Amino acid sequence: MAKASSKKPPELPPLDPMPARVEPCLATLVDRPPKGADWAYEVKWDGYRIAVHIEPARVRILTRGGYDWTDRFPTIVDDARRLAVKTAILDGEAVVLDDQGRSDFGMLQRALGRLPSPYEAGAIVFYAFDLLYLDGRDLRRLPLRERRRLLEPLVAGREGAIRLSEEVQADGEEFHRVACAHGLEGVIAKHIEKPYRSGRGEWWQKITCKRRDSFVVVGYEPSTVPGHLGRLLLAARKDGALVYAGGCGTGWSHDLSRELRKLLEGMVTKAPAVALRRKGAVFVEPVLVADVEYRAWTDDGKLRHASFKGIREREDDAGVFELI
């Protein structure tokens, strides 16, 4: 007769009301991946962080900043209704994949709408990497390994709009090297024994292939080519205000340059959002955020070798770079 296992199954938390919103857990930027068997790794997706709330009568999609963007992700909403759950909160990233299977923020931004686009909302995929609530139980107190154990049967192997963000336990430095060699944004390291903690902390760490942050667009400089964009003027946050952080003059195609110029011309203001006097500058309302890749900062606090990667609305500006 087989001996019964002495190992007890994990104890689930008691029944809890479903939270209206969960402040997301945010990864801390580090230079090198952590080491040890308690760390697992995922690809760092280049998209919008969202939470999918599945309720008996509705599905809601909330952004990282808490805005309801349900109507912007119709295919994710439809697919969420097909999951075998009564109630759930899935944490993950909405992305659009290029022809090599890499997430591309610029393609996602176009699919969502502010600029002309060949990509439709149906091209957007949600990669779920955490499960915070399931059928009446708040799972945030459980360690990550248990939350993943419950998440994987729900979304693993699916090819629709909701998919599983694969997790691997490997040598972190090698995984990071391979990710960068394939042109990915970087990797995320997560401690598998930690509960879900809102805010930024050391239990989730991100290791990027290049430095990349978001900045508020406060103006532009026209190109010498009529109707085109020469340079974006950018600002970071400091002590609750916006401060000029330098400019960005590369990273867009000929067509995108013209589209961005037209978009910004509709936002021109005579009241600059930052203290800046610059010949030829055209100031705009600070309502857009640019994703920018750069190498470093200059000694006077300006971006060095900045390249444009995408643009989005400031209403969800939780990720705008903050100067210390």
**The number of domains:** 2
Q: Give the topology string: H per helix, E per strand.
A: EEEEHEHEEHEHEEEEEHEEEEE
How confident overall, as mean pLDDT? 89
Radius of gyration: 21 Å
Query: What do we call the CATH homologous superfamily of the largest domain?
Result: DNA ligase/mRNA capping enzyme
Helix content: 10-25%
Count of helix runs: 5
Description:
- The chain is built from five helices and 18 strands.
- With 324 residues, it is α+β, with helices and mostly antiparallel strands.
- It folds into two domains: 25-208, 2-Layer Sandwich (D-amino Acid Aminotransferase, Chain A, domain 1), CATH 3.30.470; 211-316, Nucleic acid-binding proteins (OB fold (Dihydrolipoamide Acetyltransferase, E2P)), CATH 2.40.50.140.
- The chain starts with 24 loop residues before the first strand and ends in an 11-residue tail after the last strand.
Report a brief summary of the structure.
By secondary structure, the protein is an alpha+beta fold.
Structural features:
globular, single chain, six-stranded antiparallel beta sheet, 15% helix, 2 domains, 324 residues, D-amino Acid Aminotransferase, Chain A, domain 1, OB fold (Dihydrolipoamide Acetyltransferase, E2P), alpha+beta, six-stranded mixed beta sheet, 5 helices
List the helices and strands and how they pair.
Blueprint: E1 25-29, E2 39-43, E3 48-54, E4 59-63, H1 74-80, E5 88-95, H2 105-112, E6 125-134, E7 137-138, H3 144-155, E8 162-164, H4 172-181, E9 186-191, E10 199-208, E11 211-222, E12 229-238, E13 241-248, H5 254-265, E14 282-283, E15 288-294, E16 296-297, E17 303-304, E18 307-313
Parallel strand pairs: 1-10, 6-8
Antiparallel strand pairs: 2-9, 3-4, 3-5, 5-6, 6-7, 9-10, 11-12, 11-14, 11-15, 12-13, 15-18, 16-17
